Structures are given as C-alpha cells and as structure tokens.
Amino acid sequence: MARHDVLALVLAGGQGNRMEVLTQDRAKPALPFAGVYRLLDFPLSNLRHSGVEDVWMVVQYETQSIIEVLAGGRPWDLDRSHGGLRVLPPQQEADGEGGWHDGNADAIYAHRDAIAREEPETLLVMSSDHVYRLDHSELLAQHRASGAVATVVTTRVPVAQAGHHTVIDVDDDGRVTGLADKPEKPAHGVVATEVFAFDTAVVLEVLEELASEDRSLGDFPDRLLPALVERGTVREMRLQGYWKDVGRPETYFEAHHDVLVSRTRRRSTDLRLDDPAWPVLSRDVPRMPAFVEQSGRVIDSLISPACRVAGRVERSVLGPGTVVQEGAIVRDSVLLHDVTVRAGARVHHAIVDDGATIGAEAVVGSARIAGALPTTEELTLIGARARISAGAKVPAGDRVDPGGRRRQAG
C-alpha cells in the first residue's frame, strides 16, 4: 500500500573519500555491488517494497554518475508525474543562501522550504552506501506508536568496529539516552545504521533553532540528534538481519565476501539478494550471458553477464563484461565492469575498477595476508581505465589512480 503521508530523503551527496581511487570519478552510491547491482539500489528497493513512493534524492558530488544509475526512477516504479523520484542538487539562492551542503543535517535544512510545502507527517532519511534489507512500514508503525519525534534504526556490530559509526546509548525501554560519534574507545557495539524516521514539523523546527546559532549544522550526530535526545523523545528500532556500511575498501570487500558465503552450501548468512518476495531492483542493461571456455575454471564465485572466462577464478566477483584470459588467475578479488585480465596475469586481494586492464604476466596484490580477510591497507586498488603493463608488479596495498598514476603503499 502506498504511503502518501511519508517523504523519503535518500542522501547520496557525499564525496566518499575513504573509498580512495574507486570514487575519484563517481559518487560512492553509484558504486557497483555484487556484479549487477549499485549501492543506491538497496535503499530504493527497500522503499519501493515498503510502499513509500515519494522519494527525494539529495545529490552533490559527481551527480551525473548518480543520475545515470537512477534512470529516471524506472527500476523502482518511481517515474511518475505526481510524487515518485525527485533529484535535489545543491543550489545557490537569490538571497545568497544555499550552495554546497556541509553534512546531512545541513542538507535537510537547505531543502526545508520544499519539504514543508509537501507537509509529510513523517520524514524518512537514509544514507545510500549500506547493504541491508528494511521494511519501512515496520519502522513507521513503531515510530508513530511510540510517540517519538525521532526513531533511530540501530544494529549491533563488534565493539572493535563500532568506532567507525555513531554509537547509540539506549535504556531498557528503548529510549535513546546518548550518543558518541566515532568514539576512539566505544563502550559497546550498538550503532546507528543511518536510517531515521522524524516527525517532520519537529525536526524542521529544531533545525531552524540550531541554524539561528550561526554554527554549521554538519551531520546528524553533530548537533541535531543531541538536541533531540536532550528533549527525551528519541527512540531506537533494532534492525534484525544483515547490515553493513560499505564506505571503506575493506568493508566493501567484506560485503562481497559475505555474498559469496551466502551462496555456498557449506556456510550461510542472513544476506540474501535473490529473495523473490523482496528483490533488489536495479537498472537493467541487457547483455549476453557469461561464457566459460573449456580452459576456464570457476570456484565459489559470482560471474556476471557478458563475462568471458578462460582462466581460473576463485572466491571472486566479476562484474559485467569482464574477461579473464587463458592462464590468468583471479583469487579473492572484486573486479567491476569490463575489466580485462590478460593471459598469465595474477590478481589477488584486489578491487579493480571499470575498464581497467591487467597486462599479461602482471601480478596485482598478494596471495598472503595476515588475517582471514584483508584490511584496507592490504587491499590493492586499481582505478577505472588504468593500464597495468605486461609483467608489472603492483604490491599489496598499492593504489593506481584512474588513468594509471601509481601510488605505493604507505
């Protein structure tokens, strides 16, 4: 059932510096995932299946890469004359206000007048670089039944990882009592998933109050959430199931590993991308099916359409159009769209961006890492359209920029 009293804001404006060469020429939400998806597909698919049909996309950095992925909203049935998808770029207003957003709270404030004109009862706000499944109808029901002015969707992560997120303190009644943004020594692992439900009128009023103090609004944990928590009206909803912030190379790699694990019979996770009741919808670019030649060998890997494999691929993800020539080996790696790995090359623990070429007999990355999964410092990143020369060696941790400039690890 469509929800016309709800407006969803999907925040897709961040530059994504932590993804390094992978976001040098694209916005992070436009990054491919699991071969045939984009990160943007997850929040938009969740909204579509939850019946939320008024969706605004807040963009800022490399906006064309976002617009191409959105395809006018067609994959999510959001291409319509009334409601549907609306793209909100930053703008300079006649009175001198507006311009570049300084954080997600500032982005909402910049569009406050347009939001107020829509008069939604509830404002759903979410980031666009996480892999998860969420039924927003459950979030809306809990939010309204509790009488909260804000509901924070939370999850539990290992304490060692909590320092990368906003840690949320919650009492036994589910009320949020405090928060710490990316603490050096987190006290526990309950963190914000960066999905929020707000009472629209209240959050706009509080943003106006904070803006009058002539200080940057920044991100939600900087000023907005603490102000709402101080009022005692913020509650949590604990997300059950898989969630991962893929905003760093190591977590992006880990999420792909989780997809591979979920497809094997030996192990399983609660990450499922092919649930017929809740499919991940995406822009569909028709291509031929993948082809594995007689010399090719594929083990525990995802092979996307239009791939051609004559070499050996193990525990890896190949994006559409990727070619692995005879004698080449790709292990424990993520190759995005239209990558070519020439004969005899070796690729280990690497993320290789669109259109890159790994020359014959070249070696990229290292087969030996310290732990079960590589850290960001151990991963080798090859930028879009880069050309690795025949016989070249690119050690673990090195970065090659789009176009080919190489930066050594450390």
* Averaged pLDDT: 92
Q: Based on DSSP secondary structure assignment, what is the total number of beta strands?
A: 32
Q: What amount of the residues lies in strands?
A: 25-35%
Approximate helicity band = 10-25%
**Biggest sheet strand line-up:** 5-4-1-6-11-8-12
Radius of gyration: 22 Å
Give the termini distance in whole angstroms.
53 Å
Shape: globular
Q: What does this protein look like?
A:
The chain is an alpha/beta fold and 410 residues long. 20% of the residues lie in helices and 27% in strands. A 7-stranded mixed sheet has the order 5-4-1-6-11-8-12, sandwiched between helices. The N and C termini lie far apart (53 Å). The mean pLDDT is 92.
List keywords for this structure.
410 residues, alpha/beta, 20% helix, globular
Provide a concise account of the structure shown.
This protein has 410 residues and is α/β, with parallel strands linked by helices. It is 20% helix and 27% strand.
Secondary structure layout plus pairing:
Layout: E1 6-12, E2 32-33, E3 37-38, H1 41-49, E4 54-59, H2 63-70, E5 84-88, H3 104-110, H4 112-118, E6 122-127, E7 130-132, H5 136-146, E8 150-156, H6 159-162, E9 166-170, E10 176-181, E11 190-199, H7 200-211, H8 224-230, E12 234-238, E13 243-245, H9 249-263, E14 291-292, E15 297-299, E16 302-303, E17 308-309, E18 312-314, E19 317-318, E20 323-324, E21 329-331, E22 334-335, E23 340-341, E24 346-348, E25 350-352, E26 357-358, E27 363-364, E28 380-382, E29 387-388, E30 393-394, E31 399-400, E32 406-407
